[in-house]
Design a protein that fits this description.
The protein has 117 residues and is an all-alpha fold. The chain has one domain. Helix 3 packs antiparallel against helix 4. The chain has 4 helices and no strands.
Length: 117
């Protein structure tokens, strides 16, 4: 990775790949569907590598929270959009809350805050 300027875009791409592998995992039917299993393995590997590279420049706790939150929100959103999960306005509101919290973590100043200890 060239520097810190690529850390956040890489983290977001890794979160998208988390949603891909989670969806593929569901479609793999217990790893009995070869195509879905292959997509799961590739997306999970790339997602983890991206997360690992991003934490070189983003604190682990922040990076992990954003990665999981965005990945989970996309997974549920995709499941509702495809009809795999029932649509609910309440779910959409809570998913929006997850995304807002992830954006809030990005907006926080970088660095260690000694007063927060």
């Amino acid at each position: 990775m060239r520097g810190a300027s690529f850390a956040w875009p890489l983290l977001l791409l890794s979160a998208v790949l988390e949603a891909v592998w989670a969806t593929a995992l569901g479609l793999s039917n217990g790893f009995t569907e070869p195509a879905a299993t292959a997509v799961f393995a590739l997306a999970a590997t790339l997602s983890m590598v991206g997360l690992g590279l991003a934490i070189r420049h983003i604190p682990l706790g922040t990076a992990y929270a954003v990665w999981v939150g965005i990945g989970a929100a996309l997974t549920v959103g995709w499941a509702m959009a495809t009809g795999a999960e029932a649509f609910s306005i309440v779910k959409v509101v809570f998913i929006a809350g997850i995304v807002a919290c992830a954006a809030g973590l990005k907006a926080l100043p970088a660095g260690k805050d000694a007063s927060a200890r």
